[in-house]
Amino acid sequence: MGGTLLNIVTVAIGSLIGMSIGNRLPERIQKSVLTGLGLITLVVGFQNANLTGNIIIPLLSTVIGVIIGEWLRIDAALERLGGYLQERFGSAESGDAASTRERFITGFVTASLVFCVGPLTFVGAIQDGMGLASGFQFLAIKSVLDGFAAMAFAASFGLGVLFTIITVLVVQGGLALIGSVLVQMMTTPGMTDALAQDPAIIEMTAVGGILLLGLALVLLDVQKPRIANFLPALLVAPLLVTIAGMLNIAIYPL
């Protein structure tokens, strides 16, 4: 859990710095910063999506996952959580009440998804839970990146970004707990070191890249897909790989 705690600290510090300078930045600079974040997110999304060994897995995962997500209305649940936090803690923010609420929720949901979707989140948190030094190193790198991203997000969206420490704690902390359970099950030498090369992790990372591409569209103000509703695809991908393995179906071309 050490890597997750470090990540929470850097996000909190970055958010506080961003909030302190946000009001001093002209709106045009804030928009340009968000555009820059959108472009970087686009590049990372393409890189991760291209890791797949069989595009059918991300395709099926995305379609099945978004159907589940739309049925569960995950986006609405995240927005309700953001709205609750805004009512409870964000009333002191200046500005029109409606626009302030929307800004808080947008910052909370968007930053939460950016911080919790990606290979460093999954591989790093699980390996950190296993007690591997590489896991903490992954999360240390992620912490630095998230700290700067939080600074930029908070400068534009304000207090909502600070509360993403809740989602980081829940998601990465949960993955670390899974890792601590897995390490008890993996008794063969080298099994933990091979985690990052596991097809299930690779395909989950590829699907995460697709979600990052969707987030890039939001940050670039091209389109506003309900990315939160795609989150179940991250669980569907490794499930499909596992099922294929049980049925002796080769998912990667020989």
TrEMBL record:
Transmembrane keyword on record: yes
Assigned keywords, A-Z: Membrane, Transmembrane, Transmembrane helix
Keyword Phosphoprotein (UniProt): no
Residues spanning the membrane: 6-25, 32-49, 55-72, 104-126, 132-154, 161-181, 201-220, 227-251
A matching Pfam family: DUF554
Protein name per its UniProtKB record: DUF554 domain-containing protein
Organism of origin: Phototrophicus methaneseepsis
